[in-house]
Amino acid sequence: MQELIIDFFKKEKKDLSFYDIKNHLIKIKSFRNIELTNELKKMVEQNLLDYSAEKYSYLDPSVYELGKINVNPKGFGFITKLDDNTEFFVAGDDLNQALDQDEVIFKIKPKLNNKFSNAEARVIKISKRKKTQLVGVCQSYPDGKKFLKINNPKFQDYKTSFVRINFELITGNLYEVQIIKVIKKNILLLQPLKDLGASNLPGSDILSVVYENDILTDFNPESLKETGDLPDELTIKDVKELKGRTDLTQKNFVTIDGDGSKDFDDAILVEKLENGNHLLYVSIADVTHYVTRDSALRKDALNRGCSVYLLDRVIPMLPEKLSNGLCSLNPDKIRLTMTCQMEINKKGEIVNHKIYESYIKSHARLTYKNVNTFFNSQKLDNDPAIKDMLKETRNLYYIIRDYKINKGVLDFDIPEPEFILENNKVVDIKVRERGEAEKLIEEFMVIANEAVTLQITKLGLPFLYRVHDKPSEEKILNLITQLKLMGVNAQLTTSEIVPKDISNVLAKLQQFPNKQIIFTLFLRSMEKAKYSTDNIGHFGLSSDNYTHFTSPIRRYPDVLVHQYLKDYLIHKVKYTDKQLSEIHDNLEIWADKSNINANKAVDCERAVNAMKMAEYMEDHIGEEHDALITAVKKFGIFAALPNSVEGLIHISELKNDYYVYDERTSVLRGERTKKSFIIGQNIKIRVKGADKKTRKIDFELIN
Fold first, then answer.
1. What's the number of CA atoms in the CB half-sphere (13 Å) around residue 39?
2. Vertex 416: Cα angle to 412 and 422 (nearest 5)
3. pTM of the complete model
């Protein structure tokens, strides 16, 4: 039917109504109205048709393109094609209600505007609205009419007007609102959804960012009811709960997490075998025992996708009774688990492994800090058996680490900021330390994820993978160019690149000055990891088989992995071919939703960090610091301080010359002095300004 509809549009060369299409098709074939309605709806979703004013327009893929738009506060935008990153200028009159970061269908205009080097385009249709809700402070005009001052920096230049007001609006309060319509170029009609309380309360700034990024904070009443029906604790007398599970309560399992952690997904145990191999147990909270199929808890977890970790709070994927209670592997508490038991030889290879339902009792809640202290000084306030186990744990870590290095696993080890807060205010920003304990747990989780996936892959059944594609030739070529400018000969090939090629280069650069920015360049050249039903492997981990099994308290994909591990390996459910096909289709839908939710969480975390960095630097204006250039753009230079705070030196601040941007090399070069600014260059800066509201930090160059 779709081909017949398209042929009719091509013949008529005009917009058509439902009845135009129906009257034409009925002459060719018989169908019901609902069939045509569904087909037209599907074509609109596929961006083959646009529907407006009760008429359909054909969006010929040879004429209309799909892209993402960046809208400038001054009222124009730039569209980047999704398939090849070509950029097009969009005048304000051609935005067609598009907002920043929307996916749009656009058409290239035949004429060029001489003001811009980019070809011009016009937005035809908004394919996917990035922002449907905003957060801001209610304010009043002198005449008493209320409006919203939007918090998101990308929307602060829009004028706003409230419609569909269902409750009293209080000046000075934060509100979550829905975008109803874009009028002209810069006016938003907004419907108030939720009063978030006074905007001057401690923590309200972070709360506003949470709602700004559409992060769900409230659980459905049905989920809370299901949670309330669960027991507060398990005991050895809970025969029904423990039946059929392997009892591991006598083994010296421990959890190792950050100081402030409250939810413990994983517990580990290492034993030395008589043959010289090590036995590694990784026991993971059995979330699916409580968060069952078709439950309200499962639906809530799917909609949230993951827990969101911010500076002063955690927004959990599961209610606290589960995330911090029944599913958290708290010390001296019986907990239901899924255990991946692996025998690892002296080379670091898994020679045997099995996965089974179990129950454990954590014998110690350890932190990265006290385990690192123990590794350095052998001081630890725990019984000797725990200390002996930790020594074997460290021995196994070095075996696995050496195996991974030889395999070519990529470890960029890029510093992350650590915020020191007092009364919700950042008083210091440091670089987060990453010691042996952190790396050890990371390696153990990775090898457990690989072992689980390897066993499932052999069955050839539908499954959810964590995949990471190899970098494109174009990105590798750009990387090589950037490194040459920094005096680094990467010796990389662009075709058939493998992880070992990159890891060899990284190893040679360990002693290189400013190695962190080089590692950052490598990271930027990588594709993004994602969830998929198509097992293309994980390039960064140099792994052919990888999934996420180890964090079901905080990640929905891990819940799905546990569910199908139980179905396939433990309960040995016999699915028909039709059922397996349905499982595959559902997993694809859930993978897409999980990717979207994971990206939302990252966006929220970055926005909070940017806001709090700017707030911190407001008290440090005028200070001078050494800095490192991290990016060069046509509009200026981004530079980072030793504590990872990043700011912009706008091109207008480079007053001693006229600087031209070389797009191929990402270099700013002075026409008269020939002075160049490149990534990785050391400079000295002065903090010129910082604004918490816009989340921006401005530097100026010294000398």
1. 16
2. 170
3. 0.90
